[in-house]
Target: N-formylglutamate amidohydrolase
Amino acid sequence: MGTQAPAKDGEGEVFDIRRPAGPVAPLVLDSPHSGKVYPPDFRPAQPPQRYRRAEDMYVDELFSSAPFLGVPLLKARFGRIYCDVNRASDDMDPEALDNAEGLELAPSAKAQLGKGVVWTATPPDGAPLLVGPVRRTEYLDRLERCWHPYHAALGELIEEARAGRRRVFHLDLHSMQPVANAMHEDETGSLRPDIVLSDREGASAGAGYLEAARTLLLELGFSVAVNDPFKGAEILRRHGNPAQGVHSLQIEVNRALYMDVESYGKTARFSETRARLSAFLVSLRDWAAKSGG
Model:
């Protein structure tokens, strides 16, 4: 599959889609947390310099070669803390809402830390994010405007890439802080590797896909951990179904490889890291093409 220009008509209010202009590989990428749009109903108690720390900044840029390689790329435009599509739609602490009566909510440990489907805490220390409780109407509206459309778009891209094939592969793109903080599940102060790959302990992808991705990254000189400290969340749970031929992996890229985690600016290593990840995508695309059937 040769280099090709991406389609130019994929921009939307809620998300952007970059489709290849030519043949589509059996590989789909999505970047759910690199959005930086905060609509008017977002009422922060913290300045942007604080709350934007939650964004997976520049992740979509690191993998921007995807559509030129025949790989579609979906990117959320809204900020992660506004609506986190990598959380279940009911992953909300009822105490964070102004009125939870009648709602069937199932808050996880992440929601208790203030980072459920709508965030209420600010990294890295968990300071209150919002000026008041989340309004019930806002919570439900964000699900309808952001959460459901994003998952529908990802599902459609996966089905398009799968057409006529036995298997399709999906890579969910994220970034991570170099050192764990108080809002993380791993021990505060823990150092992270270059890359963490996750498959929900084998539930969202076959072992061959995980091992192929791990090997390719190691060959490019990255240090790689598997399912530690991240195991994958709602996007993998919802879309990964290896029994039905849909294999989903999550990738976390250490921010120290390409940005200053305090100033949020790109560092001199950005171009090198993007080039290495582009090389990874070429090899992963070729592997997927042989394995898709």
